[in-house]
Amino acid sequence: MDSEITVLCVGGSGRYAGMVVPELAKRGVRTRAIVRNEDEAKVARSNGATEVVFADLRDPRSLDSATKGVDGVFHIGPVFASDEAQMGLNMVEAARRGGVRKFVFSSVIQPTNTDLANHASKIPVENALFASGMEYTLLHPANLFQNFAGAWKAIVQTGVYAEPNPVDRRLARVDYRDVAEVAAIALTGDRLAYGSFELCSEGMLTRLEIGKLASDLLRKPVEVREIEFAGWARQAKLPYDARELAMLEKIHAHISEHGMPGNSLTLRAILGRPARTVRQYVEELWRGTTAERTASGSRPGV
Fold first, then answer.
1. Are 270 and 192 in contact (CB under 8 A)?
2. What is the DSSP letter of 83?
3. Which residues lie closer than 8 Å to 209 by C-beta, 6 or more apart?
């Protein structure tokens, strides 16, 4: 890989784009992370960013500076933002003006599901990329393993796995570390250019099946419950306003009625190996819990 390649990472200090930065660094790519303040700059650099740039997705002029000299862009929109689509359009247009060659957009599984506003908000960005003249790659990841981390803490503390959807509903999932690897592949070669890729792990485990995994590892019963959304949101202490909570509630209502299925073939083919599994992710969480308890003098599994 040419070490002179520079990729601009939107959200390079964030929970998910922060996983893309080290994948690019492994491949000898210079990464420029968009940040809004010095705290984010420190996080981006710790993730492996070569440089940072202060910019705002709502300020097209700042994005012109951010894209200067950039070969590729990785973009992921801020979750539930009311103007998520416009921010994505601003980034696409700035990249086009700046002569960027490659643009990888981390979208969502079933983006044409217009019943879900956070899915539909991806459509204008994808449409803009089709007409941009850039080599685009659209990533459609399923529900993320990382969303389970909060539930895991509650399982360990209370022995209860409670969410506002049926315990037997099947749901496609994926580890964002695998999505990040796909993004890096797309940004450092041409194999994935002009492609739209549904990204799912093997299997679609129900919450009952995940609860059984947790129970076996923790060596104690785990009760899997369906609870009403408002109570769950209070317990989870979600950092969302009323509008954002309404969007999230609609997602859970859709899952409750239809599930959210997906196909794992594409991810396996791109990676050239099996994707990470839910079992492996839960085992990682369990090992982390065991290490913490050992350090504190508690008995593992208790």
1. yes
2. T
3. none
* Per-domain residue ranges of the chain: 6-144+174-199
Judge residue 299's burial from the number of C-beta atoms within 10 Å of its C-beta, 0-12 exposed, 13-18 middle, 19 or more buried: exposed
pLDDT at 296 over 80: no
- Distance of alpha carbon 20 from alpha carbon 12, whole angstroms: 8
Q: Is 137 within 8 Å of 181 (Cβ atoms)?
A: no
**How far apart are the C-alpha atoms of 39 and 49, rounded to whole Å?**
14
**Which residue(s) pair with 53 in the sheet?**
34
Name the band, by pLDDT with cuts 50, 70 and 90, for residue 292.
Answer: confident
Arithmetic mean of pLDDT over the chain: 94
Query: To which CATH superfamily is domain 6-144+174-199 assigned?
Result: NAD(P)-binding Rossmann-like Domain (3.40.50.720)
Residue 58 φ/ψ, nearest 5 degrees:
-90, -5
What is the spatial distance between Cα 9 and Cα 21, in angstroms, rounded to a whole number? 7
DSSP string computed for 260-275: B----HHHHHHHTSPP
CA distance 91 to 255: 31
pLDDT value at 300 more than 60: no
The tokens for 56 are 């705002």
Lookup: tokens for 81 = 């933002």
Burial tier of 131 (Cβ tally within 10 Å: 0-12, 13-18, 19+): exposed
Are residues 269 and 195 in contact, defined by beta-carbon separation less than 8 angstroms? no
Tell me the pLDDT tens digit for each residue of 33-71.
999 999 999 999 999 999 999 999 999 999 999 999 999
Residue with tokens 């790519």: 29
Q: Name residue, tokens 């993730």.
A: 47
pLDDT tens across 75-125, in order? Answer: 999 989 999 999 999 999 999 999 999 999 999 999 999 999 999 999 999
C-beta separation of 66 from 1 below 8 A: no
Which of 137, 142, 113 lies closest to 205 in space, CA to CA?
142
